[in-house]
Design goal:
- The protein is α+β, with helices and mostly antiparallel strands.
- About 45% of the residues lie in helices and about 15% in strands.
- α8 packs antiparallel against α9.
């Protein structure tokens, strides 16, 4: 490979008239139009993300940004698309798809008007530089959030109820979540890859490699979301588009470096400001802001991950059961008898503990509530629709007595019947999949 001279430097579209940096030159018409369209469409994504970030938890509340545009979505859905929008249901919902269509239309109209009014401008180098900063910060923050949620097993937590739920009753998304949650090292490595991508996006010098890693991460996530029907397709696709935007100016250089033996010149980046001091301050502010976000995210997930297990945590087998004073044997045809009771850390609900009742037919009914260890009471306040964030108010109270660490009796009124159940706690490690041991020497296959 030949040695590069100072004149071999490749000029990025964000180059400028700064001392020592060649002028950006003329962008072709297609590049200018595409930039205008992406700039306007990116405004939609930033708007939505700010609304979600400001609304916590986003799964249970409507972001203020969505509330403001709700009337427009209703009109478009009813009079143009002739579809019904039941309400804000989060990512991939009818509401979000109609809203995206509205934004695409507005961005297209805005691009047309912008192009007609600004035909003489040769490039948008300065605006491009600032947009790259915003996209880098947004992507880094999202990578920190999703990455740390995996590092601390919070995005795909290990749920005890999955150990007793028949595989055939799981949704594709539930099967994916369970598969990842059963291996803490695997989930942690996935999270580390996303956090590393975010860290590399902090510096302009490492933006390209950070964008490449982020694109690989998001491509995998998008494929999983599509093939396992996870309701985050729109979000992961948006992140992937942002990665492509950051990589677009470097595509020729990357192709040249990876597919040929030719030398690849350095990139002369356009600074945000005209003075070196202002640019140093801007770089410092960007890094500090992202680091603060990372620390805040890490602290939040660390706090959640280090919470003690809720009282009565575990899978409890029902050894004896009576309803309205009548003892009910363990018959698979009995629709009233319990088979197991599971106390677990909440995932879909905000209550301190979830209590899941498994019937003799293996059906699961989940409740959210609280365990009062002082009064030996279990207060269930919400019935939870499995696999969702939907909660229906409930009022169920049980008294419990523990004769030993792993034995317990609970009694109370349940669905109109006075029930009494004797429980024996099972060893979680007795479930083969929960052991998930690594054997470097395998003399026999164990694909059960």
């Amino acid at each position: 490979m030949s040695k590069l001279s100072t004149d071999d430097r490749v000029v990025d579209p964000v180059d400028s008239e700064e001392p020592g940096i060649p002028p950006p030159g003329q962008w072709n018409l297609a590049t200018r139009v595409l930039f205008r369209f992406f700039f306007l469409l990116c405004g939609d994504f930033l708007w939505q993300m700010l609304g979600v970030i400001a609304t916590h938890p986003p799964e249970t509340r409507v972001p203020w940004s969505s509330s403001l545009v709700r009337p427009v979505v209703d009109v478009v859905a009813k009079h143009i698309l002739h579809v019904r929008v039941p309400g804000y249901q989060g990512d991939d919902s009818t509401f979000e798809w109609v809203l995206l269509l509205c934004w695409v239309f507005l961005a297209a109209v805005g691009t047309l008007v912008w192009s007609l009014l600004d035909q003489q401008r040769p490039n948008y180098a300065r605006l491009h530089a600032w947009l790259r900063v915003v996209v880098r910060f947004l992507l880094a923050a999202e990578m920190f959030g999703y990455g740390m949620s995996k590092v601390f097993d919070q995005q795909m937590p290990f749920l005890l109820s999955r150990l007793v739920e028949p595989f055939g009753d799981m949704s594709a998304e539930g099967a994916l979540w369970s598969q990842i949650s059963i291996s803490h090292p695997y989930q942690t490595l996935l999270g580390c890859a996303e956090v590393l991508a975010g860290l590399l996006l902090l510096s302009q010098r490492t933006t390209t490699v950070g964008s490449l890693l982020c694109a690989v991460d998001m491509a995998q996530v998008f494929v999983l979301n599509v093939t396992f029907d996870v309701r985050l397709k729109m979000m992961s696709a948006s992140f992937l588009v942002l990665c492509v935007f950051l990589l677009a100016p470097q595509l020729r250089r990357l192709a040249k470096a990876l597919l040929s033996d030719e030398a690849v010149g350095a990139v002369a980046q356009r600074p945000l400001f005209r003075t070196p001091r202002a640019n140093r301050v801007a770089t410092t502010v960007q890094i500090l802001a992202c680091v603060l976000v990372l620390l805040a995210v890490t602290g939040g997930f660390w706090k959640s991950a280090t919470k003690p297990k809720p009282p009565l945590y575990g899978i409890w087998n029902v050894t004896a059961y009576s309803s309205d004073g009548v003892t009910r044997p363990a018959l698979l045809t009995d629709t009233l008898r319990w088979r197991r009771v599971i106390f677990d850390t909440p995932f879909h609900v905000a209550e301190p503990v979830t209590m899941t009742v498994q019937g003799m037919d293996d059906s699961l009914t989940e409740y959210g509530g609280n365990v009062d260890t002082g009064r030996h009471r279990i207060d269930l306040t919400d019935w939870v629709q499995l696999g969702s964030f939907r909660e229906t108010p409930a009022s169920i109270t049980f008294a419990y007595q523990r004769s030993a660490q792993d034995t317990m009796v609970i009694k109370g009124e349940f669905l109109g019947h006075e029930v009494r159940a004797s429980l024996q706690r099972a060893d979680v490690k007795s479930f083969r999949v929960a052991r998930n041991d690594v054997h470097w020497v395998n003399n026999q296959a164990d694909n059960r």
